[in-house]
Each structure stands twice: as structure tokens, then as C-alpha cells.
Fold these 2 entries.
Entry 1:
Amino acid sequence: MSIKLISVRGARQHNLKNISVDIPRNTLTVITGLSGSGKSSLAFDTIYAEGQRRYVETLSAYARQFLDQMERPDVDTIEGLSPAISIEQQTASRSPRSTVGTITEIYDYLRLLFSTIGTPHCPSCGKPISRQTPEQIVERILSLSGSERILILSPLVRGRKGEFKKELESLSRQGFTKVRIDGVLLPLDEPIRLDKRKNHTLEVVVDRLLIRPGVESRVQNSVQTALKLSNGLVQVAVIDGEEFLFSEKLACPDC
């Protein structure tokens, strides 16, 4: 059953004289009265203060240390109250481009709301963007059907012109044995010559393995290595099958 009222009982904050009031939820309610009659004391110092206090109490101890702790207002009970925000009146316009949303700062709350509940998309290609932890990436790899042979790759160069001699030499010194350039697997112990006028995609082969019980720690180590090399990207290629690109950062893996 949905709560329909905010019930305030025995409000005595500041100049309020034991006020009790029911305010309907999901409506626009206006509090009017003479100057000094207690409008702000009821709206801001009682209802808002209690809503904000309850919200802060739900946060972790780490988060609470960065927020001002509000004291409980002088009131018997407040029921049906949700976490609250307060938008106070502003008199001066900040700039000619200011709007009601920016002056009252409600735009900041709306921006936070949409960034929290929304699904971000890449502004260039329109694909949904998601951030995945190394643990989620490992779990996704291990969920592939059994007996799949896979390559764990670290994308270092994606669609750029050059010969990339220094990059290839560095990979060889680090102990890697194979790379995939433009979709072709090549050994690092043999000379690799690239046309510097053409775009190339260079991926280092971090590991090649068979998905089976007991490879969890190996997959985890390989994913960590791939993410470190490419600054947050890892490519998983199923031999003769699909390929998956994972991003550790909230950024489009393609663009």
C-alpha cells in the first residue's frame, strides 16, 4: 500500500507552537502565512531537515564523514517522509544564460539522478557504455561453454598508422611470444614489418587456454595483465568463434 501523506505531529522547531499537519504526497503544496509565522521553520528546519537526516543515516560511515550531520528537529513524529532535497530562492542571476534550473540548483540534482539511473551511450557511435570490473570480466569468460579454446588479448593499437617497431620490441623484451596484427597471429621472435602508411590494429596475445575447471586463477592473472597493458581494455577471442571486447572504464571500447 502506497503512502499518501506526510504526517507531522508536534512540531516545535523555532517559533512553531506544537504544530500538527498532514501534507499530501505527489502533489505541489504551498505553505503561506505572515512573516515570522513559521513557514521556513516547518518546510526547511523540520520536514527537510528530518528527511535529509534520515538519508544521511543510511549512508556508510565513510560517506557520512564528508557530509554535515543534521540534528533531529524538535518534533514528535514525522511519518511518510522520503529523502528530501531543498531548493531555496535566489535573487541574483548568475549569468544571462541562467535558467530556473541552474539558479535554483535543481539542475544539479536532475543531472545526478539521470547519471545514476540512466544508461550512458557513446556520443559518436551510439552504443551503450558500461564499466566492468576485472572480476566481472573473469566471470564472463569462465561462463563460456566448456572446452572452448580462447585467446586473451590486450589491444595496444587500434586503427593507427605506423610501423610500431618500439612497441613490438618492448613486448618481446617483456616475454610475450605472439601478437595479432590486423587479425593475423604472428610470432615476436621473427621480424615483423608493417606498412607505415596503412592503419593497423595490434593486439598482444597474453594467454591461450582451454576453458575448463581449475583455470580460474590463470584467467584472472591474464585479464589483469591485459588490462594493465592496454590501460583498461581486454579482448577475448574464441578460436573459430565470437570475440568479446571488455572495458574497465566508463568509456566506449570502440571509439
Entry 2:
Amino acid sequence: MPTYLSPGVYVEEIPPAARPISGVGTSIAGFIGVVANTVDMPPKPGKPNEKLTVAAASVPQLITSWEEFKSQFGDIQAGNKTLALAVYGFFNNGGTRSWVLRVAEETDLTTPAEELEKFEAIDEITLVAVPGAITNVQHTALINHCAKMQDRFAILDGVESAGPGEISTIRPVGRSKEASYAALYYPWIKVFDPVTQAAIVLPPSGHIAGMYSRSDGARGVFKAPANEVLLGALDTSKPISKAMQDGLNPESINAIRSFNGAVKVWGGRTMADDGAAEFRYISTRRLMNFLRESIDDGTQWVVFEPNSPALWQRISRTIDDFLLTQWQAGALFGETAKQAYFVKCDKDTNPPQLRELGQVVTEIGVAIVKPAEFVIFRIQQTTGS
């Protein structure tokens, strides 16, 4: 308490009863790919006779535009083509911020777990992709990385050379609880290659990461990133019919299809198994990641505060305000806020034995909206009256 010595009016600042929680970013991508040490780099600004130096290998670089990528890794060419076209597709489809890590040789990506560890310290990454990675080892490393971090999501490329009926080949890793942090897409897409001046086949993960970003910005992370056009995609490498997708969708393989010339993502499932059915949809998994990370970041002020009913009320009000905003945005299901979520932090969740351990416990429940994957209209012929 301040000490008052002279008579007068004193104006003091007091902390608010609730502190606002700002939602974290949801579409900041981390890409890993091959860029040879010998790629041709553009000239240094103002020094046409000197070339820029390619970014160091195995060191993540923050890239916020295509021009910035070129200054770090060179323009599209033989030594970086797959990664460069994927990053170009990311920005072209609405991506705004990414971290790019290069390796010098394709063999350096045989087991990408060590390179993925370099992303662990970058807290803002929420999407991870290794364009063209299609082996069991590569997919497993991506899934394990995201499941360990619990704040990011893996976008996997299916095996392009496989046919629609070869499920175990398209998706070399089986479904699991950990794989709820990943989604797989098939087939690959055709894009224009400025080097050969012709259409080439490209793994779709870079374009899809950009589409995630565009969808998040326009609607929100709770909107399934599906029924969206992949900008820059000319066609798919294999045509997928509805009958073919009937065999892919139940196996959690998200189809990319062409509808009257528009190439669209026509699936929104994770690779979760039946034991993690609550995370069947990409939007559910990513929304939970968003809620967890936002609440974590937005309540760090609680640590070492006096563990009392006053603190419990402040925690409850802070989280309640945040979830109310999410419900109003359409992320939570319910006609009223009370139906959509609950926050409980009181003497029941914080008995004496927990307080003695220095713990404060808050229970939170949310009703998440699910995508309308199957839209059914029943038409009946009636007799006019």
C-alpha cells in the first residue's frame, strides 16, 4: 500500500481485473528443402558485379516475401526448383510469413528429424512442410515433430507415382493419435516452370500452406481449409473422380481435384485414427492448437501471483473474455455463450493440497464447430393442392 503524508487527491493506476488474450498466429509456415551451394544468386543491390551469397545451410531464415526468398536462396532454377516453386506457391496463395531452412543435398532430407529440431526454438511456426518428402521415415519425422510441439501442423505430400487404389503407397504412414497433427494430400499438381517454359508436376504442400493462410485470414482457423482454389495450379497430375475419392476419403487422404479448370482441395481430414476421432478434421485440430497456445501465451502473468480467490476470478474473467470472442466469431457451437464453453477456476478446482504444491488449476470446456463434410438434400415429389 502507498503511504500518504499530505492531504490531497491521489490518482493511482491499478491492474485490470482481466487481461486481454491476443490470439496467436495460425499460418506461419516452416519449410525445409534442397538449395544447392552452387545456385546462381542475384547481384547485390547497387553492386551489379557482386553476387549475393546463398543462406547458410541448416539455419532457418525468416522469409516474408518472394523477393526476400530470392535474395536468400536464388530465383527458380535447377538447384532449388522444388523448394522455390513451393515457397512461390505459398506466397501466391496468400501466405505472408515463413521460415525456410535449406539443405545442400537431397540425401540430407532422407531423415529430416535433425533439421526439424532447428524449428523447435521458433515458437511462431504453426505449419510445417518438406515439399516432396514422401517416405515413411520423412512423414513419421514430420508427425512426431508436430505431436511433440503441440502447436503446429504438418502438411504432407502423398506419393505422386501411386494410383488412387494404392492406399498404403500414397500414405506410407498409418493413421494414429499422433497423426492428428498432420494431413496428407494427393495427387500432385501441375504448375508453370519459368525455367523450362512448360508445365511440370510439383508436390502440393507449399501451395496448400498458402491456402491455409488465405482461409485463416478470410474466415478463421475454425473454417476447414477445403473447397478452396489452389492459385497457380494448372491441373492435377492425376484426375480424381468422385468414385475414386470414395476410396480415398475414408482413409484420410485429402483429394485435390479439378472442377471445370479450377483446381481445388476437396478434403479436410487429419490422419487421426478411430482412437482420436474427435480430431478427425483439420479445423478441429488446428483450432485446439490455437486455443491452447493463445491461452498459454496470454496468461503468463499469472505465474507467482498470490494463489487466492481474487486470482481465480481474474483468470476466469480473462479466459472467459477470450472464449466469448471466439464464440462470437463463429468458432464455437451454441446458441448462447453458456452452451459454447465453460471456464471453472475456484475452490473446487484448487483445493488446499494443490495450493500447497503451488498449483492453480483451471478447467475449460469448448464445443467446437465441425465442418459440413456431407451435405444432403432430400427431395420429395408432392401433389399440388
